[in-house]
Amino acid sequence: MTALDQNRPRRADAKPSLAKRSGEHGLGWLAVSPALLLLIGLLFGPVAAVMLFSLTDWQLGSFTFHFIGTTNFRTLFTDPTFWKALSNTLVYAAVVVPGTVLLGLVVALLIEASPGLRGFYRAAHFLPVMSTMSAMAIVWGTMLHPTIGLVNRALGAMGISGVNWLRDERTALLALALIGIWQGFGFAMVLFVSGLKAIPQQLYDAAAVDGADGVLDRLRFVTLPMLGPVTMFVVILTATRAFEVFDSVRVLTQGGPNYASEVLLHRFYTESFDFLRMGYGAALTVVYLAIVVLLTLTQARLLERRVHYS
Amino acid sequence: MIARFPGRRFAGRVARHAILILTAAFALLPFVWMVSLSLKPPEEIFQADFHLWPTAFHGVENYRVALTAAPMFRFLLNGLLVCTAIFALQLLVCIPCAYALAKLRFRGRDTLFSAVLVGLLLPPQALAIPHFVMLNVFGLLDTYAALILPWAISTFGIFLLRQFFRSIPDEIIRAARLDGLGEFEIIWRIMIPMTAPALTAFGIFSVVAHWNDLFWPLIAVRREEISTPALGILLFRDDEAGQFFGPLMAGAVIIVAPLLVAFLIAQRRFIDGLAVTTMR
Amino acid sequence: MGVRSRPYGLAAMAEIELRHIEKSYGETAVVKGVSLSIRDGEFLTLVGPSGCGKSTLLRIIAGLEEQDDGEVMVDGRCVNDKRPKERDVAMVFQSYALYPHLNVFDNLALPLRTRRLSFAQRLPFVGRALPGRGGIEKTIRAEVEQAASMLDIAHLLHRKPGQLSGGQRQRVALGRAMVRHPAVFLMDEPLSNLDAKLRVQMRAEIIALHRRLGVTFVYVTHDQAEAMTMSDRVAVMTAGELLQVGQPEQLYRDPQDLRVAEMIGSPKINVVSCDHWISLGASLPPGVDGNTTHLAFRPEAVGIAAPGDRRLNGVVASVENLGADIFLNVALADGCGTVVVRTHPDGSRSEPGRPVGLQIDPACLLQFDSAGMRQRQAEQVGAAG
Ligand SMILES: Nc1ncnc2c1ncn2[C@@H]1O[C@H](COP(=O)(O)OP(=O)(O)OP(=O)(O)O)[C@@H](O)[C@H]1O
Ligand SMILES: [Mg+2]
To answer: Which atom of ligand 1 is closest in space to residue C54's alpha carbon?
Structure first.
């Protein structure tokens, strides 16, 4: 009988003894309680609060507020600067995401192609990722300076007259996108390199025996397909970061000239903390939150469907 | 196949270096430019022809102005203090939680973990208003606490550490319990040493993020004395002395240098810490 | 053996000859002057312990690795400067190396497409519209389907490799090698990722495939049983050197080197040094000359007898009953090692602890010198010739 009992699958996992259950149960809750409190106090509570704020006319410092329904949202959606900020953010992302991903991919492929100077190149390309954006944005500001800037000096040497990149409505957003690519492509490169390292050599061998041994064939039949999952990940990451662009805008253009480089997060900052219109800012937050969460979820769904090889 | 096409191979190598030098130049040019300008007198910055190395060395003067006109070292020290405090708090909160989520069985565990996953989706900037209001209510705005407290919880940290803790076999924990170790000792003596690489990675991630952050300090802090580096350099630029490019660039060098030097010393750690942990 | 008929396809002749192949990685020599000729249509197995350079040699034949010195000849022509795809070889890898993003059909079709379609025709989207592609695609489809039905994977053509079992993946890998009718099949431990039962089954299937295709197979394994059961000839390697090449039974009965003798056969051959032999009080068998330092004999060449004066004596240490055979481990006195003896179940039973004498068939005794080289007795040479 006892032997039989021992052979039977132990159900301890499902039904632990009372002492053990209460012990682990209590311990578990004790261990997570600080995190749980903070999770509620600093994350979910605030999210709920933002949603609440967005329905009120509350101003910082005042002790009363009224529920005004969807007025804030209606103001927001009829505000041309909001639409300008939204479309600018989309344009910014549409430049930065492909730019960062392609540049990162090309650099990763070249770095991994042969060992010469590999360490140097990797460090050099990664340096912008590590640097403080507000300081480097100031540096970029001087590089894009209309008269003494490196860019216009270089163009001038080639006989091209440059523009005032950050003060020109046509170029301000593009200049910021360039800075965004500069900061992000090293990170994409590193992610691609780790993806490249995970491709088994036997796959390249198989391709060589199968007749796919040119550079392009290897890329097409082995490298790029095997990088599929990493690429999707890099795209999601870069897109999320593009939607969070703030530092360079704040430091260099403050959204100007004439809202040509206004983006969502900067709009949010100015409305909420320069003008202290908290209700409006909260409504903007809700919209921003919805966009970012939707974006991430769609991309994650796409990732599951498109690049899952099994 | 190396010797089979020596010509093509050589051309390939040259092309590789040519392109990589170009992209590396794109990545490094701002740094070179920054250092170059930080060593030049104003006249030379504005003169028509450009030299990488200053003809009249003005570096000492520029750095002196940067250091005296603004409390640069204070900014760095603030950065260190704030980043350390944030990371310490995060560890204190995340480790027990991640351990419980990975290794203890209790009712509500899966719900809590789902909550952590949802938390991962939230961009931190979206919480700025309520955080600001809360700090205002408690009178903590414009203090170190304002810079630190909102970051006390990191869903990313919980998630990352849970994944690592899970990879440690249950047998080790059972054996430790049989040896008479309490749960605290298990965490302290077994889990933490075994996940040291993950903790380092998380540390690098956290420090880099908060050292470089501008958004939140800009909201939470006005006083120069408690500014973090990213905010400090901005205050310096808007200051009188910051109107001169030489000292401004010198200030930028001082702000950017610590992290970059740390990175150059421990490259592998940083790259793995930032890249590989985000992939998890 | 001769040239087999080739019912499947029109594969080319392929005799492979390796001449003094050398290869090192940095300081370590991995292949040390290997010469080997492989006949057309033969199933040759390279066997040897892990790390002895088998895969490296195979990759050199395929052209995936370049030797430092020596020639690879196919049908009398040197192919040293030919790329893998020009060598008319197909390779099956240990990890299968299937393209995970392509379904089984496309995996099988890839080697045909890279060969038959021009670069422009292979371009995505654009290529499909180019003239000529449709017809080629049709013949490719027919050939892929033929190969797939031969391997019994026709119903899996639309699946991705990730959705297949290990055995099915193995078949797809074989199919990918087969579709283009290569003159040579190279296989690098293709069965080592399969479980024991599937391995035996796939072994039989690969043998059948070789029969049917009639082309040259070069097969790498570290499992001597696999080598013995599958091959026409076996080449034994250790540490980058080729020790002996021969038919399986030849390697078993007539090894040239002590290492070959020890590697081939299970349980392992018994080896007793002459010193032990003498110290145990047994008389050396007739014909053992002064150069011989070790005597070796297979478990089936020993019989159990009563302990006696001039023979090896020992004590039964353990008994392994495998049903059809019983193996006795007999411990020699004074720690001079153990000897494995094969007996029949209907013979006299032996319990552990029983003292026994060993009766060794002198005709089956192999002599080796201090370098491990085989020493031949006069009459054995006569008998063999
Ligand atoms: N690219 C390489 N660089 C350096 N050493 C290598 C390389 N490839 C193989 N080696 C070494 O060469 C030796 C032979 O390797 P090889 O793969 O041919 O062995 P093997 O006989 O196939 O072994 P196994 O049965 O384990 O597959 C090994 O010691 C291995 O460490
Ligand atoms: Mg091998």
So the answer is: 21
Give me the residues near ligand 2 (ion), CB cutoff below 5 Å: C 55
Using pLDDT thresholds of 50, 70 and 90, give the confidence band for residue C385.
very low
Distance (Å, whole) CA A259 – CA A242: 18
Q: How far apart are CA A296 and CA A3, in angstroms?
A: 53
CATH numeric code, C267-384: 2.40.50.140
Q: How many domains does chain B have?
A: 2
The residue whose CA is least distant from atom 31 of ligand 1 is C51
Residue B257 lies in a domain: yes
CB atoms closer than 10 angstroms to residue B236: 28
CATH number, span C16-253: 3.40.50.300
- Has residue B194 been placed in a domain? yes
Compute the distance from residue C55 Cα to the ligand 1 centre, in Å.
7
> Does some domain include residue B205?
yes
Which residue range(s) make up the domain with B49?
6-63
User: What digits encode the pLDDT tens for the residues B15-61?
Assistant: 999 999 999 999 999 999 999 888 888 787 777 777 778 777 787 88
Peptide bond into A46 cis (omega under 30): no
* Pairwise CA distance, residues C252 & C269, whole Å: 10
Q: How far from chain centre, in Å, is Cα A134?
A: 17
Clarify whether residues B76 and B58 are in a common domain: no
Q: In terms of DSSP H, where are the helices of chain A?
A: 2-7, 18-38, 45-53, 71-78, 80-113, 118-130, 133-143, 150-157, 172-197, 201-209, 215-218, 224-226, 228-243, 247-252, 264-269, 278-307
Q: What is the DSSP letter of B243?
A: G
Residues of chain C with CATH 3.40.50.300: 16-253
CA of C56 to the centre of ligand 1 (A): 6
- Model pTM score: 0.83
Residue type, A114: S
Closest by CA position to C356, among listed C338, C371, C374: C338
Chains with ≥3 CB–CB distances under 8 Å to B: A, C
Is B238 contained in some domain? yes
ipTM computed for the complex: 0.88
Confidence of residue C383 (pLDDT cuts 50, 70, 90): very low
Mutate to test the interface with A, among C55, C58, C79, C91 (most CBs of A within 10 A): C91
